[in-house]
Structure prediction request, 1062 residues.
Amino acid sequence: MTLHGKHLIAGRITGDEAEGFRAWDPAEGAPLDPSFCEAGAADVAAAAEAAEAAFAAYAATEPAHRANFLERIASEIEDLGEALVERASRESGLAAGRIRGERGRTAYQLRLFAAAVREGSWVDARIERPVPERTPVPKPDLRRMNVPLGPVAVFGASNFPLAYSVAGGDTASALGAGCPVICKAHPAHPGTSEMVGRAILRAAEAEKMPDGVFSLVHGQGYEVGLGLVRHPLVQAVGFTGSLQGGRALFDAAAARPVPIPVYAEMGSVNPVFILPSALEKGPEALAEKLAGSILLGVGQFCTNPGLAFGVAGEAMETFARALSEHIRRGEPATMLHRGIRDRFCAGTDRLGAAQGVRRVAVAERAADPARTEAGGMLFRTDAQTFLANDMLAEEVFGPSSLVVVARDMAELEEVAHSLKGQLTASIHGDAEEIARHDGLVRALRRVAGRFIFNGFPTGVEVCSAMHHGGPYPATTDVRTGAVGDAALLRFVRPAAWQDFPSSLLPAELRDRNERGVRRLVDGAYSTEDVG
Amino acid sequence: MTLHGKHLIAGRITGDEAEGFRAWDPAEGAPLDPSFCEAGAADVAAAAEAAEAAFAAYAATEPAHRANFLERIASEIEDLGEALVERASRESGLAAGRIRGERGRTAYQLRLFAAAVREGSWVDARIERPVPERTPVPKPDLRRMNVPLGPVAVFGASNFPLAYSVAGGDTASALGAGCPVICKAHPAHPGTSEMVGRAILRAAEAEKMPDGVFSLVHGQGYEVGLGLVRHPLVQAVGFTGSLQGGRALFDAAAARPVPIPVYAEMGSVNPVFILPSALEKGPEALAEKLAGSILLGVGQFCTNPGLAFGVAGEAMETFARALSEHIRRGEPATMLHRGIRDRFCAGTDRLGAAQGVRRVAVAERAADPARTEAGGMLFRTDAQTFLANDMLAEEVFGPSSLVVVARDMAELEEVAHSLKGQLTASIHGDAEEIARHDGLVRALRRVAGRFIFNGFPTGVEVCSAMHHGGPYPATTDVRTGAVGDAALLRFVRPAAWQDFPSSLLPAELRDRNERGVRRLVDGAYSTEDVG
Prediction:
């Protein structure tokens, strides 16, 4: 496949290459062809208008038809074969094996949403039948279900060039819900984005979806993204990336004459609390596993554990020594792009220079800047220093972690209460000990979206019982998550029909339950027809 | 009961009467004793800190205990008897019968939320059991459910001094969800607010709920409310009132370092579309019913029909004449307070002065300003004038409506497309005719939260299949509604537990389903234990 470097707007290839930009191969330290177009206000408007024009027809498609579309996207992406793996690997510095795994996850997510949409009960249909004889006023016939919001803007993440990018969780859930998508490609992997975007368009054509159901625009700066969020036809936003970027989009959306929801998944330091009973059981094994979680994927996961807390003592020293040793021995590796490496270096420099913080381990083998490499780093401080300096609790994206040693359990609890919103919080210890420290557990429950027992935060299972989200600044919307089929609900709103004849109702609300969805009928769940 | 005019903060009566304000009897045109305190920043902080201090214990109460609390609030309010009816009637100008009906609705809502909380399935528990043998990585044990957000600020509405005020839908749903509530009393009915607030505190004491589970503060201006929304311990906001007030709170919440959700139910003009088949069937009967909906409660409902659209012709003229006649004959009545009457007069003056708009009916009997009265008013214009002047689509709170006559169905559809977000949209006609005008139907579906067939928007049934909400500016959050048990979901967030032993899980997620709630276990709903 030859990349054209242009926008894909309503099925048409458009854009002016004159003011383009190139992707960069972080491992080779060299630009990649071709040049990609920079979108302007006219491109954004054209994509939004096309999405709006497609909305009514797309929202009215049969659920099975939308499910086929999602499944077709999955197979079109798989059909891109090694060409996609190679381009994504070059643009991200991620190994081919990792890209293949992520491709599998991307296809799995698309098929998971397809299955939920095909089954159909996620629309939460509710029917209450009329009681004409009720006094003082008759009870009307009321029926309610979720309906799609309208065009959705999706911003891909650099650290998951497939699973949280052009055809990632946000796009899959918005398309599944019945919303057209306008994707702003991440400028670090525009070629990967174009390949996946073209796969989506092939799927749209094969499934005869309306033009405008999907558009892809390129751009390097914040302007294109802000323009998209401010466009009056855009009804919701999905974003995965930095706190700064997510907050800028949130602020722009809140300042609109008609504000819209922004689902931004941003920073998290994913604290790991290690109770004395866990340290006593085997500090070395714990240290080895934590080091693995810190170094996994060069630390470039939103669930990377950036803080580890324990109580002072001999076992904690053994643990800290073993952790340092693993970090020292870890191999430096190529980061996603230069900007991420620059921010990692600045963040770790800031940590190292902070009063009361010691850098206790650095990867032995020096990181090669020409290959955009970073190596693991470990810092250490005490709880009072941590409590006195907010900066120490901020995310440093990459393979770095700060060990905080508390004097006792009371101080550990105090630290837990000081934390900001997190995607995850992990706690290590035996059940009896944890049960004795209810205050600590409550503090962690308050800040995190997911609690992990004797485990580590990296590795996010995609299933109905997962929640990937959390209080701000982990996300801009604590009420939802980006992983699993509940993500569909981010792009819908409830609507009610009063006293409508069955023929004018959406299929899910008609007397005859032709789609066989689970419905709440007069207070009881049922898949039966309404008599 | 003697009113003390003070704040109720964490069960204590506090406040300085020096800078107080008085309620006003709109029917008598006279102030009402006593003087009420104006809350300052210290009062707001004390209430927020008390709510935060109560949160952990309150969130951990058994659902049945919280349900008892809500039911006890209902019976404490009922026990206030005629003293409450009298005070609420004097402060609002609403007739005693209407207040009694509203008291019934308030108690019904509290009991409905109590039943949902006691039953417990609303927490949406999901369990996926581990698959340790899965490759390449084992599947962990994952369990997820809704947990309460934290302290909630509630702003009462002036037009429902009981059902959408201190112990109204927002308070009931927040308390039911496990969130402490800080209520800002509406300054138009501070005495009613104090009586209901004290009833809530008696219920809290009887049920041994933690201090701080409920506080009530008084204030006349925006400052108290803004201070509450900006307080870092407040986690969500419920509001019913004007667009100006709701948007100010939304903006303050979005500008916080940690933004929080704002559920503001604001203005709506509730368009009624009358198709030719409905006019042909009986224009007089239709006009009589529409007039009844316009004049109901002096037009002081958020679902008041402020716009009626039809197609030019003889039947439309018959309809318009009959509607005018009913409006002329309607009795003026006392509005809620002087501010509302002033705004009604200004709004109808603006409509009357607009180019191309004619005032076609005014209540025959003149409204008495000394009794804060307003009478019905009807205006008329054509579709092109309506389309050219945004002001004509704005809400005028009170018994006023604008009839817009379109040349043909195409123009009617054009008008429908021009509308902003609405709580409701009504359509009159026969099913065959409506089915032929899919564009009109789609336009209405896009703007409204509830669609009504051959009916009128006033009268909001409280049940699971109701949706009372809609796109901005009807509300600030299109994804939720303030009526019915789905309102509980506004004050929770999902949380997941990974690999936790049953003993450390919330009751709803343990292997043994001791609360008997409906759970999604490995993809299938069940109330059984997990083996």
